[in-house]
Amino acid sequence: MAVTDGGAGRVAGRALTVVTGLVRATHAPPSLAVTAFFTATALAAGVGARSALLAVAVLVGQASIGWANDYVDAPLDFAAGRRDKPIPMRAVRRGLVGACAAGALVADVPLSLVLGWRAGAAHLVAVGSAWHYDLWLKRTVASAVPFALSFGLVPVIVAAMLPGEPLPRATIVAAGAACGVAAHFANTLPDVDADAVTGVRGLPQRIGPARSTAVAASFIAAASVLLVIATDAAALAVAAACVDVVAAGVVVVRGHRHRDRAFQLVIVAVAILVAAFVVTGGHRLRG
After folding, report:
1. 269 pLDDT tier (thresholds 50, 70, 90)
2. DSSP β-bridge partners for residue 286
3. CA–CA separation, 235 and 242 (whole Å)
4. How many CB atoms sit inside 10 A of residue 143's CB?
5. Alpha carbon distance 38, 274 (integer Å)
6. Among the listed residues 180, 187, 131, the one whose alpha carbon sits nearest the alpha carbon of residue 154
7. For the residues 208-216, what does the mean pLDDT come to?
8. In Å, how far are 48, 106, 224, 233, 247 from 161, measured between CA atoms?
9. In three state form, how does the secondary structure of the chain look?
10. Percent of the chain, pLDDT > 70?
11. Which has the closest alpha carbon to 204: 266, 274, 252, 249?
12. 129-153: per-residue pLDDT in tens?
């Protein structure tokens, strides 16, 4: 009985390791953050209970993107000896992660189209753009394009779920795209050394971490200005001023030892902008 119990315990432990590995491979924190961003924006804009449908579609889409990223990068991650990702740590098999990525992508099609054909099509374009980044564009000078497109489509998707399917304000679309570009350049900062080993040569890697930090800060500042113009909200203007201070701090801490901190500051800045927009400008989404 002890042997049987021990075998069952090992099986349960391995199953838990696999499940944990799959969750980690979704890049859970940013996936949940993007889902929360979508949902909060939809609620603030007046989408109502259907925001829950959007949350499900976005979460499944983000999971597919995360799994695709780890599946595609697995050979390079092994070569770099990365210990922060589940496949090279052998917590989960690469084939299983790839199967989950494909399954989630297929499942996201009906989940997206339930939102309405315009909103659903826009969401699938955003997810497809992120997949193109994983499969190809991350290694090219056009690596920032999928981030600009996918983040810029957020207000388009939300607006399309409103009565009459209106178009969003162009300045809000531009602000979303600017946040996406900032996130891309900041996201590469903690991985500079690993990218050098694996040969990933997107635009941030080509211009170097110092310039990438400055680019991220500049786009965050631009997004704050665009949102103030779009909403004309005093509270958002105050938040934008705070964001500009954070952006300046990003440039200050751009040294080798502080790359993680610079990335964290950019995420904080984006969170401030999103929160301020949701509280003060969500109803101004439509053009």
Report:
1. confident
2. 168
3. 11
4. 22
5. 10
6. 180
7. 84
8. 10, 22, 25, 24, 33
9. CHHHHHHHHHHHHHHHHHHHHHHHHCCHHHHHHHHHHHHHHHHHHCCHHHHHHHHHHHHHHHHHHHHHHHHHHHHHHHHHCCCCCCCCCCCCCHHHHHHHHHHHHHHHHHHHHCCCHHHHHHHHHHHHHHHHHHHCHHHCCCCCHHHHHHHHHHHHHHHHCCCCCCCECHHHHHHHHHHHHHHHHHHCHHHHHHHHHHCCCCHHHHHCHHHHHHHHHHHHHHHHHHHHHHHCCHHHHHHHHHHHHHHHHHHHCCCHHHHHHHHHHHHHHHHHHHHHHHHHCHHHCEC
10. 81
11. 266
12. 999 999 999 989 999 999 999 999 9
Q: Record the tokens describing residue 287, joined without a space.
A: 């053009």
Burial class (CB in 10 A: 0-12, 13-18, 19+), 180: buried
Contacts of 252 (CB under 8 A, 6+ apart): none
Select the more confidently predicted residue: 84 or 156. Answer: 156
C-alpha neighbours within 13 Å on the C-beta side of residue 262: 30
Q: How far apart are CA 90 and CA 88, in angstroms?
A: 5
State the Cα–Cα distance between residues 228 and 75, nearest whole angstrom.
44
Residue corresponding to tokens 């859970």? 28
Model confidence pLDDT, tens digit, residues 56-75: 999 999 999 999 999 999 99
